[in-house]
Amino acid sequence: MAYTMSTSSLFSVVSDPVRRNRNIFADVAPHRSSLLTLRSDATRGRKRLFAIATRYNILDSNVAAPVVERHSGNYTDCAWNDDYIQYSMRNEYNDEKFKAQAEELKRQVLVMLGRVEGQVEQLELVDDLQRLGVAYHFDREIETMLNRIYKSYVHGECLSDEADLHSTALAFRLFRQHGYLVSQDIFKLFLDDTGRFKPSFCADIKGMISLYEASYLSTQGEAVMEEALTFATASLKKPKDQLTDTYLDVLSARALDMPLHQRTARSEARWFIEEAYEKKPNMSPLLLQFAKLDFNVVQAMYLEELRDLSRWWKSLGFEKDLSFARDSLVVSYLWGIMASPDPEYEACRKAFAKIIAMVSTVDDVYDVYGTLEELELFTDTFKRWDIDAMKQLPHYMKKCYLACYNCVNGMAYDVLNKKGSDVALSLKNAWEILSSLYMKEARWFHSGYKPSLDEYMSNAWLSVSIPLCLLHGHIFDTKPLDGEQVRYLESLPEILKWSCVILRLTDDLGTSPKEMARGDNPKAIQCYMNDTGALEQAAREHVKTLVTEGWKELNGCVMEERTLSKAAVERMLNLVRAGHCFYQHGDGHGVLDGDTKQLMSQLLFDPIPV
Ligand SMILES: CC(C)=CCC/C(C)=C/COP(=O)(O)OP(=O)(O)O
């Protein structure tokens, strides 16, 4: 029988620590009129009661919500809105005539590939094809070439005493990149008796650049490779006492800014095509022409994909009730391009774009807008993962939750329909885990708790959301779905763990100044400062060292990986590389009017002049 509970009784129900830890909704839900009385009461606990009342739909629509303190992310708008994407862009490279031209050029490049003879020339050609972004056309030919060179290397026919530092370092990098086992001992010819690189090599700029790039594929405990990095970095930074060619100058400056191993393929291709390859002695005009055309044709395809995604994103109407959140569709699609650039991976790219945009929005609900009480309900809804659970949420959260629920279940349906595999539970679990990680950070924030760096990282390596994002991308690989690989990803293997650690730390290096300014949770840098009393700059250096060490661990895991396909490993590495790209100079995921705007123009909207 319904009866009216007094205001003070209601508060005692809400404040009772024992009841607070269990479901008190059932206790208070029948007391609608008492709750209504509370609506104008400014006492402690009112927000919580309001949340409870909302949960049971027992407030009239004209009841004003209590005034709650909300934050704003102060995010900049994305310069490219749906109207621009749909209507303002001409997409001339979509035309069949350009595709036919590209096919013809590809045929000529294939002929050229067959004619290149020397091993060093072949290695350089593979490197050029990769840097120009067209290697995906010639996977078979590249593997045949590398296989042949590797065999002769193993049998001691090449990379002997006559091999120079450049070709040795280039071979080392390409072998490791393509999964061939190669030891750091390959460099012993270039060391003196004390185990140091002979100082005379310092003047060999080409060799130094190749050695520098190779050193980033090192694993933990490789002393020669550590020495290689120190030696090559110091040599490249030295003022030149002799004139080098401009090609080496641009390569050297680029390498010192960020090594090739940490760069993303499409932005590297655009830079290499426009700024470097033409300066290379003996460059191939045919290859350059093909690379430019291919870049533009693929870019036109990306724009079509973005148009589809943008229609979907607009239809969600987030700008109305979730205007505090990042408008992250376009930048999320860029993550997709960086993770899976090859044309065949359209479905992966789209899945990444949708899921990263969703994760960004949910992250903003937790970090920026939601009250602690609302967030508890939100987390409970993700745990229950059903429509009934949604009733307890305020309107803006309902929109966010239902959009997410529909998007994820839509993906599960696509996979069930097209591949016959049921991944619904795996996806649901991933969201339940992520929301509970976000909730933990929100509780820390709202209670003012400052975790140590270790405690922070025990949550943050996962809250960076890579396991969830990768899983949603993985199920849309072009290959049939392999249940073992899905279970393996869900088990959070070391290779995934190190990818997450690196991305979390690069994210924190980029975003923490802004997040601290708006009063967010302490991130890795601040946790380390609290732990040790270090100043900010020293803490940043420490975190950068952790990133360097993380890469060595990750490289080692890649060499030992046996369960995941090559494409799946590459996707994982590419997400880590995308993190380096977005966060190198700040928060490139949240701030869309700086470097990211230029990146969007280059990768999505502006063709390369041909
Ligand atoms: C693939 C990835 C990493 C993308 C998901 C989108 C996302 C949450 C980005 C980081 O935002 P943030 O810097 O505000 O995150 P956090 O609050 O976790 O620091």
From TrEMBL:
It comes from the Eukaryota. Keywords: Metal-binding. The keyword Metal-binding applies. Residues 80-242 form the Terpene synthase N-terminal domain. GO terms for biological process: diterpenoid biosynthetic process. Residues 314-553 form the Terpene synthase metal-binding domain. GO terms for molecular function: magnesium ion binding; terpene synthase activity. SUPFAM superfamilies: Terpenoid cyclases/Protein prenyltransferases (SSF48239), Terpenoid synthases (SSF48576). This is Uncharacterized protein. The lineage of its organism: Eukaryota, Viridiplantae, Streptophyta, Embryophyta, Tracheophyta.
